[in-house]
Write a structure and sequence with these properties.
This protein has three domains: 360 residues, Purple Acid Phosphatase, chain A, domain 2 (4-Layer Sandwich); 203 residues, 5'-Nucleotidase, C-terminal domain (5'-nucleotidase,  domain 2, Alpha-Beta Complex); 92 residues, Immunoglobulin-like (Sandwich). It is built from 20 helices and 38 strands. It has a seven-stranded mixed β-sheet with strand order 1-9-10-12-15-17-16, covered by helices on one side. Strands 2, 5, 6, 7, 18, 19 and 20 form a seven-stranded mixed β-sheet that branches. It is globular. One of its GO terms (biological process) is nucleotide catabolic process. It is found in: Secreted, Cell wall.
Amino acid sequence: MKKWQSSLLTILFTIGGISSSVVGTSIATDAQTINGTDNNKQSVEQRSQEEKIPFQILGINDFHGALNTTGSFFDDEGTKVADAGTASLLAGYLNRAQEQFKTANNGAQTLRVHAGDMVGASPASSGLLQDEPTIKILNQMDFSVGTIGNHEFDEGLQEFNRIMIGEQPKEDPYGILMTYPREASKTEIVIGNVVKKGTEEIPFGWKPYTIKEVGTVNNKVKVGFIGVVTTEIPNLVLKEHYEAYDFLDEAETIAYYSSQLKNQGVNAIVVLAHIPATSKADKVNGEAADIMNEVAKIYPEHSVDAFFAAHNHQYTNGVVNKTRVVQSTAQGKGYIDLQGTLDPKTKDFVDTPKAKVLPVDPAAKDAPKIDEKVEATVKDAEKRVAQVTNKKIGTAKENGAITREINESKESPLGNLITDGQVAMAKAQGIDADFAMTNNGGIRADLAVGENRDITWGAAQAVQPFGNIMQVVEMTGAQVEQVLNEQYDEEGRYFLQISGLSYTYVPTEDPNQPFKVQDMHKKDGTPIQADQTYLVVINDFLFGGGDGFSGFTGANLVNAIKPDTETFIGYIESKEAAGQLIEASIEDRKKLVDSTTPVDPEVPGVPDSKEDEDKIKKATIFDPLYEDDELLRGVTLQNATILLYVGDFLQSNTRTAELPEADLAGQADSEGRIKINVTSLKLKGKKKLTAVVLDEEKNKVTFPIEILPKEKVILETSNPKELSKTEAKKELPKTGEQQSKLTILFGAMAISTSVLVLLKRKIL
């Protein structure tokens, strides 16, 4: 935002004369009263004009069509609930929470909301039916308001809108979709920071916010709901699905629409944000915290009371300033129960709302009954897709899933199997491919293997559910080296699984490029030459520069093979036809050399399991840590606990003894990524941290972390619109840039409403 725009925005926010009628002409909102049941209507309406109003919001995020799947739920203390989830049990928990709140508060009212990614990357029971069963189930669960996430873009917003309005599809690839009893969604979509490119128009008639009236005719408060999605969309979806849109700054969008709501007398404001967050001991970290801190700078009077986060699938429950920030993990494994009290005098929440983030625990003593209507919808969907999903396509060499768990070099057995299959299927099509590379984020599940070692169509589809087109491109050895090096930026969030080549990499002293490729070889040991051309199989997401891999955009497209789902399934089927068993392992295709092996001090007494120790050691690597760093980053086992001690760690002499209280603690996410805010440790002048990494079984390994004195290079820009988050990482893709240069302008206090409308696009 230009400096004059920022100043003028502040003036606009503080001027009390901005008419709500102006807002009404630019943004149509639908104010609705949420009424209690008929049984409680009389008692609710007898409340006095000034009586405070209890209000409950139940929420979820990142459901991903998880009709019948379960997984582990972890809170911010690392407490695990196994086998959490399923849609019908989630519905049961939500129903009970709502009924208990109503009973305890004399018929008080509840609204159900979600923060995006309800569809996309879904298991076969929903995905094969284009997630239409998920829409039906969300209707049955009575979700009133939601926003969009990155996965709503997976097949384009046009297809998502078709699903939402219940329109019949044009294609039916498996012969089971046309007859599905689809229905239109009853959930109102709010999204404020996605507009058609070069305009201020939000697509498909969606609104940036909606207003709901809570209470009775004589005693009510308006509550506003604003929707935003991460501006990382261009790094997460195919170019063809995002290039028609601009993605506006999240903080500026929240501030802008918060001001519009306040000018209409709406002081109780909730943000539904597909934006990541984590928490520890009520303290929120991550982009959600950063954004709300920025909102406070842009518009100190913003009045955002609650922020429903999403995207990184992490338990979150804490407060940023006075805003409650929550996230329910993902895939129906947990839910949010947020409760507050509305004051008709102030038209706001009395205090920051309270919240609990709770597991959908099937083994709880007081677990509720499942919702029978939801269960019937799930069973119907399972029956419809069974003819496809239950078909055996291959046989594994051993029982047990083939895992996507990565080692310290971020290589996984399943990643090797997938990319091996891509090379093999290209060759089967007559294309002499040298290599294959795929983004690790596209591997969505372990490959399930049945007790009789059978691999089914549904198990394979769950691994590669997107249906990305597989491209065959020409790349020079220099370009191959470039994309491999692009894995090792300062964050290390995005990385590749590879086939047909191997390489070694070494540490550097550059904090922006902590590692670099040392040498590369083909599978037969032949060195990869910088000026030689190779054929590489990649998906079209990577070909468009997805995940920030700009090196792929310079490749030359020469051919294509079947989409990734069909390619993976076809590879397994071809092995079965040849009488070959499916197996995969880590083969050191990516190998760190000249590295310091983590040391676990010898402890007398009962030793830790050597095998479990080795798993932790192989999976864990910490990025270089500088004394002016705010974050400690790295990778380890998924959901591992990390305890940090300043200086050396003094271990008790028995395995069963409790660990001493850590100076700081954190948890890896569901993909094993470590991101811990270490500012409270005041690293400047200190020499060393000691990290203790504990797996889910409390096996532990200790890692020394040197604190380096060198300061990080900070990229500076005087104008945040000149460099988007995506561009700051890889300068690709670019979206929503404003390049116009305007002179400094000071407005008078009596600014006309037309100026507000004119500036809306410039500011956002």
